[in-house]
């Protein structure tokens, strides 16, 4: 699936890891390597396949996690067909189950709304770590999984067009 379409589809979905569930509320789509249909120089796969980004080239629905700035585990869902790199970074979420556990993992969060706000905090609230790399997220038996919600639509702004101020 094209990365922007995958990003739209993940909005409103729920990611579960053990007793903690987070509704996905902010995402960022990334294309892939120069040989693919969605070249994106900002993507980890923008210069081709490496051991770190190999799962981005796998089938869709896999967990791509990486360590950022030596302290944050960032969470992505692969979206392209097998062999074509692309992924969606999960930037923020709303904890909907397991608040106490999420709070214990994010003691610096001042309010519940902050528990999974920001890419590194999203992974921390769910307890996702580097060994989770490559998890099949749509496998109902997986320890970490994604459950899609209703599709969210988009449209042009109403009453805004040429000549509007």
Brief overview:
By secondary structure, the protein is α+β, with helices and mostly antiparallel strands.
Give your account of this protein's structure.
- The relative contact order is 0.22.
- The protein starts with a helix and ends in an 18-residue tail after the last strand.
- It has one domain: Roll (3-methyladenine DNA Glycosylase, Chain A), CATH 3.10.300.10.
- A hairpin with a 2-residue loop joins strand 1 (14-17) and strand 2 (20-30).
- It is built from three helices and six strands; from the N terminus they run H-E-E-E-E-E-H-H-E.
- The protein is globular, with a radius of gyration of 16 Å.
- It has a six-stranded antiparallel beta sheet with strand order 3-4-5-2-1-6.
- The longest helix is centred in the N-terminal third of the chain and has 8 residues, at 3-10.
- The protein has 165 residues and is an alpha+beta fold.
Keywords for this entry:
six-stranded antiparallel sheet; alpha+beta; 165 residues; 6 strands; single chain; 14% helix; globular; 3-methyladenine DNA Glycosylase, Chain A
What is the level 1 CATH name?
Alpha Beta
Beta-strand percentage range: 25-35%
* CA-atom Rg in angstroms: 16 Å
Instruction: Let me know the largest β-sheet.
Output: 6 strands, antiparallel
